Structures are given as structure tokens and as C-alpha cells.
Amino acid sequence: MIRSTLLAGLSAGLLWAPAHPSVAADEPKKADPAPKAEPAPKAEPAPMGGISPQTQKINEFILKGYENAGIKKPAEKANDYEFLRRVFIDLQGRIPTPEEVIDFESDRGPNKRTRLVRRLLNEKYTPKNASGRPVTEIPGLVTPRRQKSVPIDYSGGYAENFSELYTVWLLTRSGVDNVYREQFRYWLEEQFDKNTSYRDLVVELISATGKSNGDPTKEKVSPAVHYVFRHLGDPIMAEQKGARVEYEKEGKFDNVPITSRVTRMFLGIQTQCTQCHDHPQAKEWKQRDFWGVNAFFRTTDKRGAQTAMMKKNAPVANYVELTDVPGWNKDMTVFYDQRDGQRKAMFATMLKDVAQAEADQRSTKTLNSANNAAGKTRRQVLADWVIQHDNFEKAFVNRMWGHLFGRGLHKEPTVDDFKSDNEVVHPELLNYLAEQFKQYNYDIKKLLEWICTSDVYQLSHVAVKGLTDVKYDPYFARMPLKAQSPEVLFESLVVATRVRARLTEEAFYGDKNDPQKPGLKNTWTSKLTSNFGDDEGNEANFNGTIVQALMMMNGRELNGQIKGDKGKGLLADVIAKRGNPAGVYDELFLMTVSRHPTAAELARLEEIRNGKGRINLGPPAGGKGPSVGTPVPPAAASDVSYYEDVLWALLNTNEFMLNH
Hints:
By secondary structure, the chain is mainly alpha-helical. It has helices at about 1-15, 55-70, 80-90, 100-105, 110-120, 155-170, 180-195, 200-205, 225-230, 245-250, 255-265, 285-295, 355-360, 380-390, 390-405, 425-440, 445-450, 485-495, 505-510, 520-530, 545-555, 555-560, 570-580, 580-590, 600-610, 640-650, 655; strands spanning about 125, 150-155, 210, 300-305, 320-325, 335, 345, 480-485, 615-620, 630, 660.
């Protein structure tokens, strides 16, 4: 019962609501300080110095956008705690640990925010405590595979985070068994860790052949084959029952999913509806454009399956294979039916450039022997033409902007929908960043650094009065509130509860030979996905409702990781470390919401612990009179179960669940 009081007192009454309003409000009345409690340290925004010329240009273009929209003053800068948490979630895929918060808080050097961004992308680092000494252990980062938590490999953490992001974006969250998903994710992690050029990464994803796993000294091996393999579509069916499909004429698979996924993922152009008809809104995209790209995949074959297809005890091999068969679809022509019943033919033709589409022109890149003298496979030619497309760089810039801000640079928030009726609100900014990204050899880390050190990325989520209308959203006068993805929310829960240090590798990751033992990671992520995301990697747009709170509150697995046993466990360790209630509260806030509690929050928590809180049960019988409440029993200063309830309440707040 006490959890309800704590959650109400923190989530609705104190935590984040008055302390961090979504709209700037008048100065609230000061609360009485908590007994014997030090006030939370101030976190004035650190100046962002040492920035690159590209970051300066971002600042200039955004200011120009403010002027065009009549925005005289954007939101204030986020304080250091908010900025720290935000950039950790976006680049590392998790919240910071208390040790990392203290390290950043204690940094008095110049350009601390710029240095933090570069550190999170490129470095190994050991945080320092409040006394300036290197920490020797970080409980939230100990794992079954890495018992030594320092130095922290931030470059590796960035690679792991972006490999998770791209695994979801490229494969979706379902339809692929974990053994294959991990093959693909590990390969992506290696590419991000090496800072492989984005251009080279895309070429391999589109054109890869061979097995997904094996001995590369004896055979062609590329885990990248999982991308095309996942989306090849259904086998082509014969027009007459019992007839044989002529692979040499049509190919083996319809390739419908991979066609639209390639144009959407790498060019930011949605062609899925043009499979059946010309685009109803964006008139520049025609049905023939879809089938021209489709023809590039008609020589592709696959062996194996990425899922057991619900077959009980079906064996899962350790690889799948993707090959190209030159003898298939020899004339490079795909036939398709229009809505008026006419059957049309389309050669293997690259999607036209955006400039051509705007001028109502057709593509000039049709595959033939003259432009493929090198004898490349069709997918290799397609990959070359994709990276030459005039929207290739813009599509990636917009996707990264959307990752960091929750929306792209268009009128509509979708990051991958370039079309004539979706205006680019910041065309100069988009063009400039695309050009710089190309000039710097498609360096993903550079692009992220430029954006994360900009003024607009540092803005508070608290809107200035008069700028709350959605029409101002495309101008980024404040940082939009963003839902954490299920994968990031899982990692944040793991860091906050320090669960990895208490579990064996099998208990955490699961037994790959026994599907009945999926492990904590798979169990939690599955539940979080069903509540916070979807199969396509689109995260729920929420501000933290009772539905999400109840999902976490009723989670048996999470509850089991919070509760201790006979004076042992997470909270017992925190009490032993910090000693008094004020210290324990401070540690719990740092563990979850990455800041110190305010004096008002400390006072309210002590009020509840001392038995002065009440559980509101609603109006009395008959519905007349004031609401009544049941007193909350007091708890001792070292009561583990009480602090477990405080931690539980913090984990269920908007401030924990949202990226703000």
C-alpha cells in the first residue's frame, strides 16, 4: 500500500511535475527544508565551448528558423543533470550511473559538455568521485561477462547502442530467431566500433552474399546477409495451379518487402503504396518506380530459415545463406498490373533522384550491359546507385536528427517520408549537414558530435509560454519529450537496479539451447516491447500513464530484482553505503533519475517515512464530505522494505521512463 502513496507523492505531487513542468510556470512557493538534509546541488547549464564550425552553422540555421517562425526566445538551456542524462540515453543507450553523475557534476574544466559528447563517442574513461579520485568500481555496470567495471569503454557502449538501434530498424523486432539476430547485431556492433563509413555499411547491407556464419578462410561469410534475407518476401506463385514458376524468367521471390525497405531506410522515400498504384499524395512517385527497383532483387536466392516457424523442437542451424543466380530473370524485366487492368513491364531501373521527381522526369539509371561492364551482381549495382542518389546523405542526416530529437526536419515528424507534400522546414540546415557528412567520408560519429554539441540539442523540454502549439514543434524551440525505446528502457532498468552483478551469464542472457530458459534480458525486453514499442521500431508516444506504471509495478521479474532477502540485496547495500535516510534518498535518485532530490522531495519522503502520509481511498460512503485517507505506518531509518518502495516509485515516474 505504501507504494501507492510514494508513487502519488513523487510522480503526481512532487517529482518532475512542479520541479520540471512542461510549460514554464510562475515561481512556486518554497517548501520547508527536510530535517538534516542538504539541498540538492545547483546544476547551472555549462557553457558549450570548443565546438566545431559545423555545430556553429547548426546554431545559425536554427536561429534563422526561429526568426522565420516569429520565435523570439526558445526554451532555457537544460541543466547539467538533464543534459547528462539525455546524451547518455541517446549515445550510450542507457541512463548514467551515480558515479558518472558525480564525475560530471564535479568537472569544473572548460567545455565540459563538448568533452562529454566526444568522450561518449570515442573514449575509454574512469570517472572520478567528488574528491577527484578515480572510482574503482561501478556496481551498475558490472556484468556476467565483465566483472571489472572501469575503465568504461564508451566507444564500445556507443557501438552496442547503435547496433541495437539498427538491428530493430533493419530486421524489426520479430520474425528472426535470437541466434540470427545476434549474428547480425554483433556484425553491426563491429562496424560501429570501427566507425565504418556509413556509405560502406549500406553497400554491404544491400549487396552481401554468402553465409551468415562460418569460417571466412574457407567460404564467403557475411552476417550482413540477414537484412536482405529477412525481407525477400514470398515465393512467386504460378499463374495457373500446378504450373511451374520459370525462375529464368521471373526469379524466385516477389521481393516486395525489401524493395520498399531499401528506399525508405536508405533514401527516406516511402514507396510501399506504389506497389499497387501511383502515390495518391506525392504524385511524383509512380508504380513503375517501385517495380524498377524490385527487378534488382530478382536474381537473389536464399537457403535456410531465420525462424523455426513455430515448429515444436525444430532445429535451428547456425547460419543462413544468400546467393545471386545470374540465370534468373534474364531479361531484367518485371511485369506488374495497374488498377485499370493493364499489364506493364519495367526494366531494372534505379529510383529517380528527388530533383528528377520534382521536375517530373524519369530515372536515367537503367541496368544494361553498357553500364555494368564490370559484371557486378544486380544488388551490387543497386548499392552503388543508392549511395549516389541525391537523397542518400539527407535521409541519414534526417534519421539521426530524428533519433536525437524525436522528429525529423520536415513539417511532419516522420524521419523517412521525403515527398512533395511534406515540406522540409529547415532546408538549408539539411543540405548543409548532408554536404558536410559526405565531405567527412560519411563519419557517423562526427555527425552525432556536431548535433549533440549544438545549442538546440541543449534546450530544456520546458516550453516558453506561447510556444506550446504543435505548429512550433518543427522549429525545435524546446527539446521534445521522447519515449525511451524498449531496448533503452531495459538497459536503464538494468543500470538502476544493478541486476547484472547479481546474475549468472545464463540467468541474464538465457540458455541458447533451452527456449524454456530465455533469461532476464529476453523476458524483460519482450514485456517492454509489448507495452512501449512496436515491431517496426516505432516507440509509443506517451507521457507516462497509469497503464505503463501498472505494467512496471506488477512486473514479477522487476520486483524480484528490487527486493532483498534477509538483510541482503540492492537496498541493503545502499543503506550500508549511505547510512542515513537523506543519503539513501540521494543514492536512489541518482540511480534512477540522474540527479539529487530537491529539499521538497526529501521533506515529503521523510513525512511519509515518519507515518504522516495517508493513502487516499476516495470520498466516504454515500459520496458526501471530504476525501478520507488511511495513515501510512512509519518505517525505521534502516527499513529495507520502505526504501524498496521508494525505488519502485521512482522507477514508475515519468522522469525515469521518458527521455527529456
